[in-house]
Amino acid sequence: MFKIKGMERMKKLDKKLIKWFIGKNVFVDERIQKEVGIFATRTVFVLFVFELLFGFGIVVYASNSQIADFETLFYISTFVQAIGVLFLVYGFMLIPMAKKRLLVKEVSPEDKKEFVKRLQHSWVRIAPLEFVGFWILHSLFYFNEGFFNVLFSFKEIISALIFTIFFTLFMSLYEKMHVKTIKDDE
C-alpha cells in the first residue's frame, strides 16, 4: 500500500519536473517520460565523465606546473568547467529533445497571446539572475586590477545591464518563435 502511494507521488513529481523543464502546456505521457529519461541519463553520464576527467586534468596541471597564482587558476578552471557543462547539456539534452520536437510549445489560437505574455514575463523574472551572473563572471576576467574594484565600477555595471537587456529580449523573441498554434478538430 505504501509502495503504491510512493510510486504515485514520484510519478506526479516526475511529471511536474518535466513540465517545469519543457513547459507547462505539454501533455506528459509515457513516451515523453521515456524520451526525457533517456536523454537525462545520457547527459548525467557524460557530465560525470567530464567532471572526472576535468578534475583529474586540473590536478595534474596544478601539481606539475609552477603556478604562483592559484586564485587565477581557480577562476579560469571554474569558468571553463561551467562553459563545458553548458555545452554538454545543450548538446546531449536540448538538441536531441528539439530534434524529437519535445520542446515545441503548442497552444490554441485563443491562448497564444496569454501564453506569449507569460513567456516574456518569465524571462523578465530571470533577468536579475542574468545580470548578477554576467556582472560577476565578466569582472573575473580582469585579474590584475582587483576583483572588487572592477566589480563595483560603473563600466562593469553598465555592461552587465546592457547584456541583460539584449539577452532577455533575444530569448523572449526566440521562445515566441517556437510557439505553435494548433487547430482544434471540429
TrEMBL record:
Q: Which InterPro entries does the annotation name?
A: DUF3278 (IPR021697)
The transmembrane segments are 39-61, 73-95, 122-142, 157-174
Key words of the record:
Membrane, Transmembrane, Transmembrane helix
Protein name according to UniProt:
DUF3278 domain-containing protein
- Species: Companilactobacillus futsaii JCM 17355
